[in-house]
Amino acid sequence: MELTIEKVEKDSSVVLYLKGILDITTTKQIDPYLEEISSRMESLTFDFSELELMDSTGIGSIMNAIHMSQEKQFQVKFQGVNELTHEVFEMVGLYKVLEALKGEAI
Amino acid sequence: MFQDKLSVPHVSGKAMDQTLQREIKLARNIQSTLLNGQAPDFQGGKVSGTSMPARLIGGDYYDFYPLVNGKIRIVIGDVMGKGIPAAMLMILTRGAFRSAAQSTQNPGETLAAMNRALYKDLRALGSFVTLFCADWDPETFQLTYANAGHNPPLYLNGQKGVIETVPKVSGVMVGGLPDQSYEERAIVLEKNDMVFFYTDGIVEAQNDKGEQYQLERLMSTLTEYGEKGAEEIEREVMGSIRAFTEEVPQKDDITMVLLKINADQSDITSLNSPLL
Question: How many CA atoms lie within 13 A of B218 on its CB side?
């Protein structure tokens, strides 16, 4: 089971396209991308459209990125959230975390 | 004995493996003992729980706390992650629940107090816990509940044979945001009704083809065996999951708590109830 992350950077925005499985075995792959985010960056978008599965550690990574956005002053956005992932995000309250910390779900 | 980062004991690889194995077994015993404590008895029904970790130890949690007003506070939860790290946080969660249950008036307050107690530690560790907390009142047959990001329990109407999720109540996972409040809802149970609390390891249990057990199969099993007692239903659900997965090792812990009502009158008669 693998996770591939494709990074597309344009101006002051970064989009991370997550493909495959975001679980306990792959979730650490996100960390280097988060560490790279500089103070000039305005937004980080997670694209979930090709994500096949996400477990609780995957949700934890996304939540950590949202909290990091407070410290580094950028905005986290979600795009390509499928129905199943949407239900999970809603159930655990991730959208409320995003909203409270000034992020955005597209 | 405390050791700093520089004073690493000199042990061989084999000795280290044996030590680790022994300590993991001890940790498993500790967790199993703390998790599978005696459930409170009350006349007219039964509350019961069981948990099966995917690895030697796990991050699922359930607990019962008899309150001085005669109610029983029930909690079920799922710590982010798996194995030893999740198990350590599960023990932390248990301590927070026991403390909060004693000092709060209702399940929403309990979750808020737990979030206050755990938030900073969970954020520092980049973790979270989903929890569902409910107060069962054997006098009024009312179940009042609040939710911190956990999947909602199933409610089986014993007379109609209809199963559905309990009316939705939402709240942020513990460790997600500081200073959270948790709304509550309540349902009134009747004779032969059942409420089934569970963690997602049940519906996501997989067979060797990668197919999941799923909610529909769980609902069907509960409907089929809903007339039986709580512990029998537990065994039937576990049996159904084992038959489906054909003993394929699972990725996630499996935990369930059942509240089964049998009669009109009920009373807490035991156990860990705090002394007045």
Answer: 26
Candidate from A67, A92, A100 with C-beta closest to B149: A92
Q: What is the pLDDT of residues B59-96, one digit of tens each?
A: 899 999 999 999 999 999 999 988 888 999 999 999 99
Chain pair A-B, CB pairs under 8 angstroms: 53
How far apart, in whole angstroms, are the C-alpha atoms of residue B223 and residue B194?
A: 10
Residue B41 has which token pair? Answer: 């008895």
- DSSP string for residues in B127-186: --EEEEEEEEETTTTEEEEEEEBPPPPEEEETTTTEEEEPPP---PPBTTSSS----EEE
Measured between CB atoms, which of A56, A90, A96 is closest to B78?
Answer: A56
- Which residues in chain A are contacts of B130 at CB distance < 8 A? 56, 92
Neighbouring-strand partners of residue B174: B129
> CB of B234 within 8 A of CB of B62?
no
For residue B252, give Cα distances in angstroms to B21, B42, B181: 21, 32, 29
* Residue-wise DSSP of B69-131: TS-EEEEEEEESS-HHHHHHHHHHHHHHHHHHHHH-SSHHHHHHHHHHHHHHHHHHHT--EEE
Query: B180 CA to chain A: closest CA distance, Å?
Result: 11
Answer yes or no: are the C-beta atoms of B61 and B78 closer than 8 Å.
Answer: yes
Interface pTM (ipTM) of the complex?
0.92
Buried b (16+ CB within 10 A) or exposed e, B162-186: ebeebeebbbbbbbbbeebebebeb
pLDDT digits (tens, 9 = 90+) for A40-52: 889 999 999 999 9
CB contact (8 A) between residue B171 and residue A57: no
Calpha distance B103→B97 (Å, rounded): 10
Q: pLDDT digits over B231-260, tens only?
A: 999 999 999 999 999 989 888 899 999 999
Structure tokens of B146? 């609040």
